[in-house]
Amino acid sequence: MSDVRAYRAALVHCLDDPRRAGPDAVVHHADGLLLVEDGHVAACGPWAELSPGLAADVPVEHLPDRILTPGFVDTHIHFPQIDMIAAFSGQLLDWLQEKTFPAERAFADRAHADDTARAFLGELLRNGTTTAMVFGSVHRSSVEALFEAALARNMRLIAGKSLMDLGPDGLRDSVAGGRAETETLIRDWGKRGRLGYAVTPRFALSSSPEQLAAAGEILRAHDHVWMQTHLAESPREVAAVAEAFPDSRDYLDAYDRFGLVTDRSVFAHAVHMTDRSLNRMAQAGAAIAHCPTSNLFLGSGLFDLARAEAHGVCVGLGTDVGAGTSFSMLTTAASACNVAQMKGRPLDPLRAFYLATLGGARALGLDDRIGSFSTGREADFVALDPAATPLLARRLSGVSDIRETLFALMVLGDDRAVARTWIAGAVAHDRG
Fold this sequence. Notes:
Layout: E1 4-14, H1 18-21, E2 26-37, E3 40-46, H2 47-50, E4 60-70, E5 72-78, H3 92-105, H4 110-126, E6 129-135, H5 140-152, E7 156-160, E8 162-163, H6 175-189, E9 195-201, H7 209-221, E10 226-231, H8 235-244, H9 251-256, E11 265-269, H10 275-284, E12 287-290, H11 292-297, H12 305-310, E13 314-317, H13 329-342, H14 349-356, H15 358-363, E14 381-384, H16 390-396, H17 402-412, E15 418-423, E16 426-430
Parallel strand pairs: 1-4, 5-6, 6-7, 7-9, 8-9, 9-10, 10-11, 11-12, 12-13
Antiparallel strand pairs: 1-2, 2-3, 4-14, 14-15, 15-16
Helix pairs in contact: 4-5, 5-6, 6-7, 13-14, 13-17, 16-17
């Protein structure tokens, strides 16, 4: 017997990228109906049109002061860094040595990993994030803890063990050991529930050429896995990679020569990119995870979204916790708008919303499953509260324009604006 539920509320979702498809790409129903059957979207449209066809026994929950949106998609975040978010330090390479690596060593302890995994997923759901691409630590058990916790919540999650045969003491694997553990994780978790595996060389400076070659071989051998890593985050890092890989044409080429630039590859940051690299990414179908709060926090630089997209590169948003300063994709979208302003190429709020939902799903190659309210999509969705704080309530009093409403929610909102989160049609977080 099917489980059918209906929700009456304001609805907004994207059918396409507004930059290409125009205003019709964003669908807004001020009084809408979302019909969910067995964890999937069965219908979405105006209440007046769809409600007469509802069966008499279908329960309808009326949420008159809420906006339902697809769940947010975070294309880059670090699970082991939750406890060192907002840790003051220098720029990227110093911050890694002083703050990140000491925190990640603790994940050799499985009990610590289990406790952190529960807290980490709780923060995602509290912020309305229903899908994420996640870095684990170098320890296999850290990813096992995360996958177990996500499986119990029926979350769609992509994660991987960091490959770091050139890592510091306590965070170093080997070419053979890293490969064996990655293969084991793919076998045990890569197709369980709504989980996915990402081959995860941390970045070019933490893996030897031999380990990068092994990562490429694993990626080619398993057509259902992703690849995630960091790329061109800071000028000092770019210079160090050029010195370590003198035969590479640029930073991306240091990965490309090992078969790591594919349509299943997601590169975090990509702030300091050559035109050649961007053209190559577009040609391969690789995606960029734009992490604005992290880039600002570490002083890494200002990502040029318009330039990357002009080259045809797919872009999603990433919080990059713990260098990123918030789990909130609303906050992250607002920061992306701020960075775009600083680059002199304003980002429309409807496009920022697209990047946080369907755009992120496309960056992960999952837009046929998540990211919109199109019929058949998995029913991961969020109820936003436009009156979550006194200031939001005052700002949006009498406002009906959805662009203005979403922008105010991004700029003034955070986890408090997320009233409820559903995973596959089931409530996973309720602010109460």
